[in-house]
Amino acid sequence: MSVSIVHAKSGLRWLRPAVISVLFLSMLPVSVYGEDDQSIAALRQMGKAFATIAGKASPAVVGIKATKAARSDLRSRDESGDGSSSPLNEDDLFEYFFRRRLPRQYSRPQQKEIAQGSGFVVTADGYILTNNHLVGQTEKVSVKLSDGRTMDAKVIGADADSDVAVIKIEADGLPFLELADSTGLEVGEWVIAIGNPFGLSHTVTAGIVSAKGRSGLDVANYEDFIQTDAAINFGNSGGPLLNLDGKVVGINTAIIGPGGNIGIGLAIPINMAKDIYKQLKESGSVVRGFLGVIPTDIEPDMAEFFGLQKDTKGVLISQVTDNSAADEAGIKRGDVVTEFDGAPVDSANDFRNRVAMHKPGSEVNLVILREGKRMDFTVKLAQRPAGDVASSEQPESPGKLGFTVQALTEDLAQRLGYEGLDGVVVTDVERGSQAEEKGIQRGSLIREVDRERISNVREFKDAVRKAQSRGKVLLLVRDEGMDRYVVLQQDKRE
Length: 494
Known about the structure:
The protein is an alpha+beta fold. It has helices spanning 2-26, 30-57, 90-97, 132-135, 270-283, 325-329, 348-356, 410-416, 434-437, 457-467; strands spanning 61-70, 111-121, 127-131, 140-144, 150-159, 164-168, 190-195, 203-214, 225-228, 240-242, 248-256, 264-269, 289-290, 293-297, 315-320, 336-340, 343-344, 363-370, 373-380, 382-383, 403-407, 424-429, 445-449, 452-453, 472-479, 482-489. The chain is elongated and about 75 Å long. It starts with a helix and ends in a 5-residue tail after the last strand.
């Protein structure tokens, strides 16, 4: 009895404000209710739109299973990682980069690896777009269609540089997806991802385009990713990213983070994939134009070293390959490319992608600033090569730059691939230093200081000391076969 009374009293407590609320709401204009109804109706309409797109597109999305031969990594002889080896010892420095492996008898037996992902049909006779990392170098590929049929597929071609692949099944009258123009895609637009995450076929997620032009992620050699918050999980690779017209704007490719709602999804823009698809379909391989330069993004601190305005847009040429198209055209290290075929150049990644999209033999027009003066060049592109993208002085530390160097001996040059080059070798990099942040590492070769060539430690020290009057120093650094410019700050000396 007491309980029911308590409940009754409790009910009276909320009843009074409830009645007041109802009376208050009854006094509101009818338009408020109308606006709520309109909002709910709009949400319902959006939901129906997603459902319609998914219903029409899903039959063209396939599940892919690829079988690969996999060998476990061989263990190196020294995996202690205690850092006890001296950076001054040439053998230790070489060992740091090229660790020897155990004898063959210690290797593990070959195993099979099964990869699962997604793809989508682009022609009624069975051509399918997907990812290279899913079907490249496989022994067998099978495709599961939306109607439940499973068919063997042939790999027509796979391009590791872009992570695009084309496979084909023998079938006719298949539902297929239309490819959109991804250049018109805008940040904030709604997109829909369809795929087979964790083997759950034809999973549909929706979100927006979070960003465009993402690069530097080491997913592929040529990157211009669409970033989306549409949930993408393991197994979505190779599936389509669709716009509200139900057309493909991208190929879902990678996840940064754990995946799904707490990760970042990346998709290859379909415009980048179109030309690759065409080449793979026609010849099974991709050929790209080759200019023969290493472009570097221009940092604000670099401008004064090259006679540029601080707001100059473009890319800095840090290396020109001997006898390349660029070399024959007269392009030099230190040149700044501001335009490519009449369009402004925004970044090194953008520049590389645009060169690669042209076929060998194409003529391209470049606008270059050299020592602040404009120059125009017309260059005939070559074909990109396969695989492309002496002293006893003791090591010295160049002040507070964050690394130490030693002379480039003949033996070190041979071991580290620096034959025929001058400079000093980085032997140690301080953790957390600006040098580490700029990517300088053990084994890097410092070739120039403030655009002056250096050949030994003494010249290096003198050049760095001279640069202190400026409060910063420009270095030409070579590692992994490429030259790049780096600016480091140092204590200014008047």
